[in-house]
Design brief:
single chain, Alpha-Beta Plaits, alpha/beta, Rossmann fold, four-stranded antiparallel sheet, 14 strands
């Protein structure tokens, strides 16, 4: 549905985007991650035709965004960061205006589409209130409504939950997830929890280049403590247990942190069952055994500290 082909963007002597290429298919929710200034928004602007690339191009539904901009733009909805809204309009008036711009002329179809996105984005209660008087959460919902008004095959959203309170963030996440089956969705965010809860694929960029393109689980595997096991002991001398764990073939090393022993496997191997059986056989006084919590934030940090 969306293909980025060697996108490059230079601003004078500064290269903001350096040969970015990827494909996004129907059913994918792709999280586009990177530090501030990594080139996320610039890439999105080139894909959507709002910024001319220095070289390379993007295809949407097979249409080149530079050569066939109208055909390409009919296939996606774009929610830029802090997307502009006409403040003096009401949500109903604004969505009517967007329907006109999208060429939705049939009155019945127009009314049906507007009512549909009003319900999806929970805007019925403020439909006649001017946008300038709405909270940031409601303004973001208006932006989301105009993005999906024409029921596009692709959604491209830059920081869709930025500035929202926790409840509003959850609503937007549920909305995006509910549309994933029938659409290709590209979203940028700084919130790793958001990526874990919604995305089936993650691209991380730094200094304008892709440094990872993997599923969330594949990214977790990069963590040095992937599949590590924590053991809490019942006032037992940890030294003999530590030495016994070190003698097990799949275990690379054992460390002690915060009163717990952490067994770290070689190459992320599963060691839960082995440790459990060893503890049972040796009658270790273990009061707790848990998988070490692997956080995507830590993997992200390691990858982007160039």
């Amino acid at each position: 549905m969306i293909t980025a082909e060697n996108l490059v963007k230079d601003f004078g002597s500064i290269r903001a985007v350096d040969h970015i290429s990827f494909e996004l298919k129907k059913g994918d929710i792709l999280g586009f991650l990177g530090p501030n200034g990594a080139g996320k928004s610039t890439t999105m602007k080139m894909i959507t035709g709002f910024l001319q690339p220095t070289s390379g191009t993007a295809l949407v539904g097979g249409h080149d965004i530079q050569k066939e901009p109208i055909a390409a733009k009919k296939l996606f909805g774009y929610l830029p960061e802090n997307g502009p809204l006409y403040q003096e309009m009401t949500p109903l008036e604004f969505l009517g205006f967007i329907a006109d711009m999208r060429g939705i002329k049939n009155r019945v179809d127009r009314s049906r589409k507007i009512q549909r996105v009003m319900e999806i984005c929970h805007l019925e209660g403020v439909r006649h209130q001017t946008i300038e008087t709405l909270s940031k959460g409601f303004r973001q919902r208006v932006g989301m409504a105009h993005t999906i008004l024409h029921d596009p095959e692709c959604l491209i959203m830059d920081e869709p939950t930025d500035g929202l309170d926790p409840n509003q963030k959850q609503e937007v996440r549920r909305l995006i997830a509910s549309m994933a089956r029938d659409k290709a969705i590209l979203l940028s965010t700084h919130i790793l929890d958001e990526v874990e809860s919604m995305c089936n694929r993650i691209i991380i960029i730094a200094e304008g280049s892709i440094i990872a393109d993997e599923t969330p689980e594949e990214l977790r595997r990069r963590h040095p403590r992937y599949n590590a096991v924590e053991l809490s002991l019942d006032h037992e001398d940890p030294q003999p247990i530590r030495e016994a764990l070190r003698g097990l073939e799949p275990i690379e090393k054992v460390v002690e942190e915060n009163g717990k022993l952490i067994a770290i496997p070689k190459k992320g191997e599963m060691i839960d069952h082995l440790i459990f059986e060893t503890a049972r056989r040796e009658n270790w006084k273990v009061i707790g055994m848990d998988r070490f919590p692997v956080k995507l934030e830590e993997v992200f940090w390691d990858l982007t500290q160039l």
